Recover the amino acids of this structure.
């Protein structure tokens, strides 16, 4: 007779995959991205919570950047007579910080083997490409 305290189960216990099993199941694309992001194959896994936190941080940086670049610099600061010509310099610094946050988020997603790592890579890669274009434009404005 089974009771609520019965610890035996008729169903077999599922085995949690070992780290070496997960590493051997990675696709060539996963291995390429791990090399590109400079993640060792035998590193301890990251957590999904850490990946989400890094993603939230990169979103906050991107939001701050957009507010500065599209609200503060073009409208608010010139109305106050401030920030003449400092927009590209500050924009370049903020773009670089945003790029670092995106890459760090990608590293966390891949380190955790997060199921949505490729979705984030597509989104982050697209934003990264736009940030590179904006950084080049800022550099041209600074140097000319």
């Amino acid at each position: 007779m089974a009771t609520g305290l019965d610890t035996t189960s008729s169903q077999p216990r599922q085995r949690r995959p070992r780290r070496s099993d997960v590493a051997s199941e990675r696709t060539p694309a996963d291995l390429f991205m791990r090399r590109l992001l400079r993640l060792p194959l035998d590193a301890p896994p990251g957590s999904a919570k850490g990946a989400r936190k890094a993603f939230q941080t990169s979103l906050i940086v991107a939001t701050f950047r957009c507010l500065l670049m599209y609200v503060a610099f073009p409208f608010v600061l010139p109305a106050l007579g401030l920030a003449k010509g400092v927009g590209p310099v500050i924009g370049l610094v903020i773009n670089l910080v945003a790029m670092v946050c995106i890459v760090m988020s990608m590293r966390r997603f891949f380190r955790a083997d997060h199921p949505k790592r490729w979705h984030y890579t597509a989104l982050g890669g697209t934003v990264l490409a736009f940030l590179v274009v904006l950084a080049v434009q800022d550099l041209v404005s600074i140097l000319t």
Notes: Residues 16-20 have pLDDT under 50 and may be disordered. The helical segments are 19-24, 28-36, 48-79, 87-111, 117-143. Residues 48-79 form the longest helix (32 residues).
